[in-house]
Amino acid sequence: xxxxxxxxxxxxxxxxxxxxxxxxxxxxxxxxxxxxxxxxxxxxxxxxxxxxxxxxxxxxxxxxxxxxxxxxxxxxxxxxxxxxxxxxxxxxxxxxxxxxxxxxxxxxxxxxxxxxxxxxxxxxxxxxxxxxxxxxxxxxxxxxxxxxxxxxxxxxxxxxxxxxxxxxxxxxxxxxxxxxxxxxxxxxxxxxxxxxxxxxxxxxxxxxxxxxxxxxxxxxxxxxxxxxxxxxxxxxxxxxxxxxxxxxxxxxxxxxxxxxxxxxxxxxxxxxxxxxxxxxxxxxxxxxxxxxxxxxxxxxxxxxxxxxxxxxxxxxxxxxxxxxxxxxxxxxxxxxxxxxxxxxxxxxxxxxxxxxxxxxxxxxxxxxxxxxxxxxxxxxxxxxxxxxxxxxxxxxxxxxxxxxxxxxxxxxxxxxxxxxxxxxxxxxxxxxxxxxxxxxxxxxxxxxxxxxxxxxxxxxxxxxxxxxxxxxxxxxxxxxxxxxxxxxxxxxxxxxxxxxxxxxxxxxxxxxxxxxxx
Length: 518
Description:
15 helices; 21% strand
C-alpha cells in the first residue's frame, strides 16, 4: 500500500512538473512575442521621431541654398539686402545663432574690402585674426587671399565677428580648401562660439557659392565665397523634443567623425544606470556622419495576456491547452475550479480513510479492507487479524508530555509498516491501539516470527523515547479466519479477547484466540 501511494505521488509530481514546464515554455514564447511586438512599435516610434529630427535639421542647408541662390542671381548683394533676406528666413529659427557672408578676397582687393568695413559698416579696423589661446584680436597678416566676415545676421549678436578672416583660422582650414575647390557643403565638428569660449557648443555649416559655368552643370565657375551658418543643435533639440509631452525619449546627437563626440541632447538624463534599449539612426549632415540615439527609461509595460495564459495552462493539458489558450477563458476558469474541487475531494478522502497522526488506515478503512480480503471468491489465503495495544503508554504522556507520546505512536506505526509484508494491512484504531491483517499463504513468512520482531522493536522504541525510564511493550491478540469464521466483527472480537489474555499473561507477548478463551 505504501509503495502504491509513493507511485501515485511520483506520478502526480511528474504530471505537475511537466505541466509547469509546458506552461512556462508557452508563457515565455508569448512573452517574447509580446516583447517583440512592443519592441517593433517602440522602434517605429523612435524611427518616426528620428525622421522628424532629421527634417528639422535639413532646414539649415535649405536656408543656405536660398542665400546662395540670392548671391548667384544678383550682381551685388548689399548689407541691407542681406539683412532683409535674413529677416525672412531665420526670424523664428532660434537654433541659428548667425548667418555670415565671407567673400573670397584676393590680396589686391584687401584695401577695398577693409574700407567697406570701416566706412559702410562703421568698424574701426580692417581684417583681423583671433590669436589663440588668449583670443586677442590682431591685424591679419598679408595673405594670397582672405575670407573676411563682411555680413552677419542677426547683427546685434554677431557684430563683433565682422572683419575676422576665416582663412586665418587653422581650425577646419583643410575642409574649407576642399569645399572651395569641390563646391560641396560641409559641416564642422562642434566648437565653442568664436568670441565666447564658455558659451554653448555650436557647429558651422559652410556653403561655397560658385557662379556656375554656363556650359557646365558642375560648380566649376567663379568662386564667390562662403555662406557660413552658426548653429546650436542643442537649442533645436531642446525646443522641439525637450519636454516629455513632445518626446518621451532621451535623445543624443553623436558625431561619428569626431570620435563619437556628443553634439547635443534634448534634455538631461539624471538616471545613473545605463538604458536597457538604445535605438540608433544615421543622421546625415553635409560632409559629416552623425548618429541620433534615442532611448527611454520607462519600463516596457506588458499586458496580462501571458500571465493569464500561464494560469490557464497550469490546469489544462497537452496541445488542447496550447491551441485554445486565447479563446477559452470560461473553460479555463471552470477547469481550475474543477481541479480545486478534485483536490479538496482527495483531501477529504484522505482524512476519511487515514489516521492524521501516523498516516495509517483508520478503523473504518481498515474494516473495509479486511472485509474485501475476506470476501474474495476462491481465495487461497487466510487472514490473521491482530490487535496490538501498547503497555504503559499513559506513563509516557504523563511524564514526558503528549508530544513524546505522539512521537512514540509514529515510530511504532513506522515499525509496523516496515515489518509487514506487501498485501498486509496496518491501521491505527485509536489511542495506543493498532490492528494488523496478515495474509497466511503457503510458503509465506511465519506470523510468529513477524510478531516476535515487532515485540522486540516496540520495546526498543519505547526505551529510546522514554530514555529507559518506562517499560514500553505490546500486548497482541490474534484471531485467524477459517472456513467457519469469515466475519470481520467476529474476528476483531476474538482478537480483542486474545489481546486481553496477553495482558493477563504479563504483557509483551502475543496470544492466539482459542475456544478456551471464549
